[in-house]
Design goal:
The protein has 12 helices and 2 strands, in the order βαβααααααααααα. By secondary structure, it is mainly alpha-helical. It has a two-stranded antiparallel sheet with strand order 1-2. It is globular, with a radius of gyration of 22 Å. The two termini are about 30 Å apart.
Amino acid sequence: MARNKRALDEVDPNSEAAPSAKKKKDTKTRKLAKGASAEPIKESNSAPAVATEASDSKLNSDLASAAGIDPDDEDDTIEELCGGGPKCLCRKPADEHPEHTWILTKTGFELVLTWQQDQMKREPDAFGMYVYNDFAAYGLREVMDNMLLAFDKEAKKKTRVPMAMWSHIEGMAWFFNGDLFHFHMTDDPEANANCLSLVGTALLTTLEVLIEHNLFIPASITNPIRNIGLVLSRFISSDTTVLRSEFCDRNETGWLVQVVKMADEHQVEIEGVYGIEEKLKEIGDAAAAAQKPKRNRKPPAEKKRAWSLSQDFNSQGKRLWRRWDWKRELAKYSSEWAYTPPHGGDCAIGGHNYDLTNKETMQRAKRWERIQYGTDYAGEEDPKI
């Protein structure tokens, strides 16, 4: 299907951006890929109330549900909830809007905006060019690999900080509900399935850390993490995350069952997204049949050496999700799915091999385009790899 070309610095895909006002010297603003205003974040200890773009019908229902509006109402009320309009609550302190339940930490909000921008930097349509099939798809997975590597920096710390890890999980939950069309259009579905499996391990690892710090508890004024149910519902209800993708044939997204089971055990209500009850019902039978997940407590040295990831798969090759190990799984994924792009670059997961704002990447992409398709770049120096 033909898609409209998008400008790299596009702020709101649903309206024409107004001319930029003159900024004060020290004011920090960021142009957003989509779905939020470009106002600087106000310093506050509160999490900002965030409502993502209102152009998606599914998001409309979610926003309406959170705001107490009938999702079938066809007036313009929902459009005013987000998109930089006068009623947009993006970047506003949550304490000032207690009626709005869609909230993120400031760090989580910044992460998802960064990842959205990184995705756009790997979209050839945004640069008016065509490199080769699956360029954008591989670029998207590069972004996902980068977010997993960023999470690893927090996960491998000797003293893990629950809020820091949770901010990464927030960002993933929002990012995976965005435009991940290209993730379906790749010639390497097995790598994508393994990437999603690692996303699940990141989430389960974080939930274990929250449990250890007595933070995985029902929402209350005493719990510093006020959006656990919302974030989990975003993971579970996501369609674009491909959490129910046809290429996850080894139960790579079976971690959803464990997430629901852990939430039930700790009386954490998964809520906030319109229609979440139906999604929970879909996996209810599997959650009831699943065994109690083993806590990832540090085992004795001899047992740790004896266990391997292969033991968490049944005879049909499907993962059981009885145990997980972030460090081992990331190492295995990094070893098996490192690759060198056809247009050149480093052999590794993540990086900037598909970032078209990177000068070397753009030169390689242009040369590939010119060689493969005879594109005329008259007057330009032939870029060298």
